[in-house]
């Protein structure tokens, strides 16, 4: 079975978005039943440094981000199921300078991507930790964030220099079967990207410039995939293999892009670029195969 899925942003005049809860409800909440039904879904925060991506995804005390809210709904939905049992595992990784690090086990060094027998791309050797509640996931996330590559830049004092990806895997079994057979696996990717600005804008030199080039390689590949997928004449060849980020996230997946822009006039060019990408992404139709 194949299903077409497109969700356009609602009419901005029709609703108010004042906090992370509103952002979650308008953008991400609808994905949760898909994941518990065995589909993959991705939410990524896109935009220049300091525009609020980490604030949206992770949140702050008293202002929980998309991650907490998505996990709360995910666990709630699983608890309410009468005919299924679920097992949830999580992995947390960063892509820094086109290298993958396990943030829950940083001693494991740099990890490689591999295709499994079904053709889906996996991170070889990444730790998968069982989680029974949002608190357990968030505790591990906080631990993992201490390992994340974060440095001050001219544009943000606690700038995330890597793309951070939280993978939540939901394995579903049917309770009513005599043999407890695994039926479906859904995966939710929650992604806090590094800043999308051109390196020159953050007045970075040396190491930060090199990072900028690598960050931009992944983001450029992401932008190219968005361009190719949104081509009015139908998608041409999609270069998912051009970067670690697009290899990992590419393929069959319902995807939400949360675009971040700054109100500052000095950020006009970045804001415009972000909106152009967001507009293109809005027109992508994905075919999700079951
Ligand atoms: N909606 C908001 N309300 C209040 N404060 C915010 C909001 N968005 C962002 N901030 C604050 O702005 C600062 C920069 O935000 P944040 O670190 O989330 O940016 P970022 O886009 O993740 O940047 P980078 O790409 O450098 O990691 C933080 O101190 C954050 O708390």
Annotate the secondary structure layout.
Layout lengths: L1 E4 L14 H8 L4 H5 L3 E7 L6 H5 L1 E2 L2 E2 L1 H15 L3 E13 L2 E4 L7 E2 L1 E3 L5 E3 L5 E2 L3 H13 L3 E2 L7 E2 L2 E12 L7 E11 L14 H23 L14 H6 L4 E6 L8 H15 L3 E4 L1
Parallel strand pairs: 2-14, 2-15
Antiparallel strand pairs: 1-16, 3-4, 5-6, 5-10, 5-13, 6-7, 8-9, 11-12, 13-14
Helix pairs in contact: 4-5
The structure holds adenosine-5'-triphosphate (ATP).
Explain what the structure shows.
- Belongs to the TRAFAC class myosin-kinesin ATPase superfamily. Kinesin family.
- Its main location: cytoplasm.
- One of its GO terms (cellular component) is microtubule.
- This is Kinesin-like protein.
- It comes from Biomphalaria glabrata (Bloodfluke planorb).
- The chain is of the alpha+beta class and 290 residues long.
- Helices cover 31% and strands 27% of the residues.
- It contains 8 helices and 16 strands.
- The protein has helices at residues 20-27, 32-36, 53-57, 66-80, 134-146, 207-229, 244-249, 268-282; strands at residues 2-5, 40-46, 59-60, 63-64, 84-96, 99-102, 110-111, 113-115, 121-123, 129-130, 150-151, 159-160, 163-174, 182-192, 254-259, 286-289.
- The strands form 5 sheets. Strands 2, 5, 6, 7, 10, 13, 14 and 15 form an 8-stranded mixed beta sheet that branches. Strands 1-16 form a two-stranded antiparallel ribbon.
- α4 runs antiparallel to α5.
- The longest helix has 23 residues, at 207-229.
- The protein is globular, with a radius of gyration of 19 Å.
- The protein starts with a strand and ends with a strand.
- The model is unreliable at 1-7 and 199-203 (pLDDT under 50).
- Adenosine-5'-triphosphate (ATP) is lined by residues 47, 49-55, 60, 156, 158-160, 194-195, 260.
